[in-house]
Design brief:
Keywords: Membrane, Transmembrane, Transmembrane helix. 24% of the residues lie in helices and 24% in strands. Among the domains are: 179 residues, no CATH class; 93 residues, Orthogonal Bundle (Helix Hairpins), CATH 1.10.287. It is of the alpha/beta class and 551 residues long. A 13-stranded parallel sheet has the order 1-3-7-11-14-18-22-26-30-36-39-41-43. Strands 5-9-12-16-20-24-28-34-38-40-42 form an eleven-stranded parallel sheet.
């Protein structure tokens, strides 16, 4: 039977035997059986320590020294993982180390790790390097390590970094995760480029859980592919001073749902697992306001441009603290449902240019004002407000863009028509004409005001009919006081001022009053009635026809 090398310490020899038996090797001061107590994450801004409470002498984040009895050299760990001994018959070899200090450079880059690996409450003196390695499942829970380098890492199982404190950041560029990536309650700081998590091009076959994640630095997931969901519920992302991005994920593809939402406090309080008691989908639907939540928060620019979310993109109970010139970019995203129901609106711009949505579920108080919404080419099939959304607020939402974009009004009107709200759709199109009028030169604006007052740009046909009746009444009064002479004095024609005026404002109808010859002022009045009749009658008929066609 292969023995541990002679130059290993007693602690390291014990780890050798525990590895062969697949047992947990617990070096904590209390030697408590079972998992260590796990607690809630640190307040936002503490990016190197994930726990609010200390683990006493077993706290890997404290400044307390751990003696030789709790120290394992990195070369010993590497030997076990890359060229470990054969397991005891009937056992599966695995490295399960708790409460240890790992000294030296743990370099596993390019290696193959065939056994299960789990570190809990461990302290790494130097960064962990596993770039281009192949592994099964890797679990680091409540561990302190300066930095994790894992570019192009390939695993068949999970990668867990829950409740870890990593002040120098994580690099997972182009990694391939066989099942889940778990970052729940981790606290991670920035690298030299202001990135806390660099995972561009990462591929995760199932879920990425990063609930209550605490970051100081950019979360970069450019061109990432996640087969299941990406959950950032209750996370706090702060941009670093040398990098304005808080969350940078253009061209991300998510096979299920993106959660930028609040996290129910009750599912984490008192939980002794890295998942919380509410891991995954909640089986019990509870009214949101009935429980206390920690919102998703981002301080800095958020980019999800060109993202694809096959089930939904949920932005609820989220806070976006954007600086001058920063925006929440949802440009060109594609998803069957976008839920945007923040309790407080983002402080910067929300951009949805050329995004394509199925259902838009939103609330009026979630959107920024003062023309901080960009909707150029934004298309959606239906509007499903989460709470009452008055039409005037919806029109103000469309008009919040910095420039006049007629397609935004057309899109809103089309969605309202699909829901059978034709009158609301006409109101939106009238608002479009009024907004357009403000962009015209003075003559165009004057003509626009006339059209608006007279016929509501054709979207208020009843107004045209009202003006038509008023013109007829004025004509009747005038000709009642100034009756014209008959064209042929020898013919006896019965005079009727009301019918004569009606014949002028309705010029295609003969009401038997054509045999009169008004004087010069009367001719001008008659001409004005004819012109008014042509314009207003045509507008009224066109409006009624449009209503009948839509009906």
């Amino acid at each position: 039977m292969e023995q541990a090398p002679d130059d290993w310490t007693d602690t390291e020899r014990g780890l050798w035997e525990a590895f062969r038996r697949g047992e947990v090797y617990d070096l904590r001061a209390g030697r408590v059986d079972g998992p260590a107590d796990l607690v809630l994450p640190a307040p936002a801004g503490a990016a190197v320590r994930p726990d609010r409470e200390s683990h006493g002498p077993d706290d890997p984040f404290s400044a307390e020294e751990w003696g030789p009895g709790r120290t394992v050299r990195a070369e010993v760990v590497a030997r076990l993982l890359l060229h470990g001994p054969e397991p005891v018959p009937g056992r599966v070899a695995s490295l399960k180390l708790t409460g240890a200090r790992i000294t030296g450079d743990l370099t596993l880059a390019g290696g193959r790790i065939d056994c299960y690996v789990e570190f809990q409450l461990c302290r790494f003196d130097r960064k962990l390097l596993i770039s281009e390695a192949a592994a099964g499942t890797l679990r680091l829970v409540s561990c302190a390590l300066p930095r994790l380098e894992a570019s192009r890492l390939a695993t068949e199982g999970d990668v867990h970094l829950a409740r870890c404190g990593i002040p120098g950041g994580i690099r997972l560029t182009d990694a391939r995760i066989g099942t889940d990536l778990l970052l729940n309650q981790a606290a991670i700081g920035p690298d030299a480029h202001g990135r806390a998590v660099s995972a561009d091009g990462i591929a995760i076959n199932q879920d990425c859980e990063a609930e209550r994640l605490e970051l100081l630095g950019e979360l970069s997931l450019r061109s990432a592919r996640i087969g299941g969901r990406l959950s950032l519920r209750g996370a706090a992302l702060r941009s670093a001073p040398n990098n304005p991005n808080a969350f940078n994920a253009p061209r991300i593809t998510i096979g299920h749902t993106l959660y930028l939402s609040g996290s129910d406090d009750s599912t984490w309080s008192g939980s002794r697992t890295v998942y919380g008691s509410g891991y995954g989908e909640s089986g019990e639907q509870v009214e949101y306001r009935a429980t206390r939540h920690t919102p998703f928060r981002a301080w800095g620019r958020v980019r999800l441009s060109d993202g694809r979310f096959d089930n939904a993109c949920l932005i609820t109970a989220a806070e976006f603290h954007l600086g001058p010139g920063q925006e929440l970019s949802l440009n060109r995203i594609q998803t069957p449902e976008l839920r945007f129901t923040c309790e407080t609106p983002p402080t910067g711009t929300v951009s949805l240019n050329r995004a394509r949505i199925g259902n838009l579920v939103d609330s009026p108080g979630a959107w920024p004002t003062d023309r901080h919404i960009s909707l150029t080419g934004f298309s959606y099939e239906s509007l499903r407000p989460a709470e009452p959304f008055p039409l005037d607020r919806r029109i103000a939402w469309v008009e919040s863009g910095a420039e006049f974009r007629p397609e935004a009004y057309e899109q809103l009107a089309a969605a309202l028509r699909r829901d059978g709200a034709d009158e609301d759709a006409r109101t939106v199109l009238l608002a479009k004409q009024r907004r357009r009028r403000a962009t015209l030169p003075l003559p165009g604006r004057l003509w626009g005001h006339l059209q608006d007052a007279a016929v509501g740009y054709g979207y208020r046909p009843g107004r045209a009919a009202t003006w038509l009746v008023l013109a007829w009444a004025l004509g009747t009064v005038y000709f009642q006081e100034h009756p014209p002479a008959p064209i042929k004095p020898d013919e006896k024609v019965v005079w009727n001022s009301a019918l004569y005026a009606a014949g002028k404002v309705l010029p295609l109808i003969d009401l038997g009053q054509a045999g009169w010859n008004p004087d010069l002022p009367g001719q001008w009045v008659a001409t004005a009635l004819v012109l008014t009749g042509w314009v207003l009658a045509t507008t009224a008929v066109a409006g009624v026809t449009r209503l009948l066609q839509r009906g």
